[in-house]
Amino acid sequence: MIITYCTTCGNEVSDNYCPFDGTFQLHAADPSLTSGAKPKFCSDCGTENSGHQQYCLQCGSFQLPLVPFKVERTQEKVATSHTIPDLSGINKRLAILCAFLAFLVVGIMSFVVSEGFQQQATTFQQTLNDLIEVGPTEVVNDFYYNYGTENAPLPDPFFGMTDYWMSAHLLNSTLSFNMTKAGERSGGDLELQSGLLILLLLPLISLLIAGYLYGRKASGTFQHYWVSSLLIGLVYGMLTAVVALIAGFQFDASAQDSGLVANLAIENNYPFIKAFFAAFFLGTVFSFIGSLYGSGTMKQLTSSPLKESIRTILFGISLSIAVMVLLLYRFMSDANPFLSFDDIPASYFLIIVFQGGFLLWNTLNLSSLTLDMNLLDEKLRVMYSALGGLKIETNDPFSMFSFLSSNPGNLKLYMMLGLLLPIGLFLWAGYRMHQGGAIQLHRFVVFGLLYAFMMSLLAAGLNTGFTFTFDFLAGEFQDMTDVPFLFIGSSAITTFFKCFIFSTLLAICGAYWKKRRTSEKCPLEVDF
Predict the structure, then answer these.
(1) What is the pLDDT of residue 281?
(2) What strands lie across the sheet with 173-181, from one edge to the other?
(3) Which run of H or of E encompasses 184?
(4) Which residues partner with 468 through β-bridges?
(5) pLDDT over 70 at 2, yes or no
(6) How far, CA to CA in Å, does 429 sit from each of 84, 435, 513?
(7) Contact between 433 and 456 (Cβ < 8 Å)
(8) DSSP 3-state of 28
(9) 141 near 168, Cβ under 8 Å?
């Protein structure tokens, strides 16, 4: 029973204690916990009763007996004694089963993705070799060519199912090159940042489903679902860490020419600890969200900052992906003689749409999008923000980006119109969070913190590019004064602060908007 009136004095109450006479507003049907006294006032409508009736004379609600003060204090003491999360109400077997289910689903989807992207992965690998000329395939080919070995065996492709599995958990791939020739060593590392939103969806969807199933089968409180999600994340993280031990590849080659022996080793490994914590974090957070939806708890969190922050991110990225589809469709229409849909594989199209959708949404949140590269003797740095516009630094005045900088067209106008999308979603979130009465600023600060935290995590994990580090500058690397690199993405720290300020201020404006509308309607309601 929801208590809205004090059962002793009849005044309206909203807490556990009456602010007028201090009566504890707890009632129970169990006679062993009650004093047996009937409430004087109805807790639902506030009507005064004689104290002998079991039902209210005005509204007919059942009048539960009062709980004495001593019993109430005992219950409070027991409730607050659990400083450590209580695992007694957790369905451990079901939580472990859900973790295994999510793990198997991610593995199956990684296999499907690897098979579907097989040809595209080989094409990407060849493109990488053509751009930087020191990719894994190029290094192996040069090694065999220099030592007169023909038809040498090559691992094809270098990246397989387990690599997609690790990339789906935002783990970067690091390829180590080591070559020994006549006692001289040369080598280096190539780190690939392959944070793709379409791959991140694999564990997210699986963990949401696993949490949803747990919430449907197991009942409990908010705390119980959080503790069970920690267990799901722990098991899921351990299983993913085991995959990290066997992921990657190792390639060794040896050749001899004129009595000169050379050895080449290429290795790609994933850190065990990093894989565990990445999977543990994803498993805990998204299984928890799924359990809240499965149990119906999320529906009860009316105007919750957590619910509104999740809703805003989902709607924002989804709408941005839809905009990217429309832009690509217009750009690759039949009227465009340079590019058509037939020129781009379906997998590439999905990657561009999903990745571009997130980058567009992040840019509409006032974050700066950066393209920084040094390839084929061309240095380029492109920075774009919705308010600051386009800034380009390049050593090639005839590049495409230099032309775009001098002829931006209607880009700024389109971005200004695009800003209406996050503005509308933030205002609507603030409108929904306001529950009437005085505006509680802390609720909107929590909303802004949660939203900014999730956006900064996505920004940090979905950066793409590659970076070289050379341990020994020997052979062909001696003449390289600038190491090739590529970076596409945004700063996580900058994203956090801009998203926090932007979302919090507009959510507060949305709350004031609702308060103003409510105050305008009240006089009309009184007249009737």
Answers:
(1) 94
(2) 249-257, 260-269, 173-181, 184-194, 464-472, 485-489, 369-375, 378-385, 389-394
(3) strand 184-194
(4) 190
(5) no
(6) 34, 12, 11
(7) no
(8) coil
(9) no
Alpha helices by DSSP H, 218-304: 222-246, 272-295, 297-300
Structure tokens at 285: 């957070």
Neighbours of 20 (CB within 10 A): 13
Structure-token pair, residue 247: 């992921």
Looking at residue 312, what is its pLDDT? 94
Phi, psi angle pair for 461, to nearest 5°: -85, -20
Paired tokens of 407: 């002829």
Count Cβ atoms below 10 Å from residue 156 Cβ, excluding itself: 10
- Here the tokens at position 501 are 């300020």
Provide the CB-side half-sphere exposure for 475 (13 A, CA).
19
Most confident of the ranges 35-39, 253-257, 282-286: 282-286
Tell me how far apart the alpha carbons of residues 502 and 491 are, in angstroms, rounded to a whole number.
16
CA angle centred on 338, ends 336 and 339, rounded to 5°: 80
Distance set, CA 197 to CA 9, 115, 194, 317, 318 (Å): 58, 18, 10, 10, 12
Q: Residue 187 forms beta bridges with which residues? A: 178, 472
The mean pLDDT value for 239-261 works out to: 78
Length of the chain: 528
d(CA 221, CA 302): 16
**379, 469 in Cβ contact below 8 A?**
no
Specify the 3-state DSSP secondary structure of 143: helix
**468 alpha-carbon distance from chain centroid:** 28
What is the chain's alpha carbon radius of gyration, rounded to the nearest angstrom? Answer: 31
Quick check: 10 and 43 in contact, CB under 8 A? no
What is the rounded (10 degree) CA torsion for 508, 514, 516, 518? Answer: -150
What are the Cα distances from residue 245, in Å, to 60, 117, 197? 66, 23, 24
- List, in sequence order, every residue forming a beta bridge with 22; answer none if it has no partner: none
Question: In which band, very low, low, confident or very high, does the pLDDT at 449 lie, cut at 50, 70 and 90?
Answer: very high
Distance in angstroms (rounded) separating the CA atoms of residues 326 and 307:
29
CA–CA distance, 503 with 239 (Å, rounded to integer): 37
- Alpha carbon 184 to chain centroid distance? 46
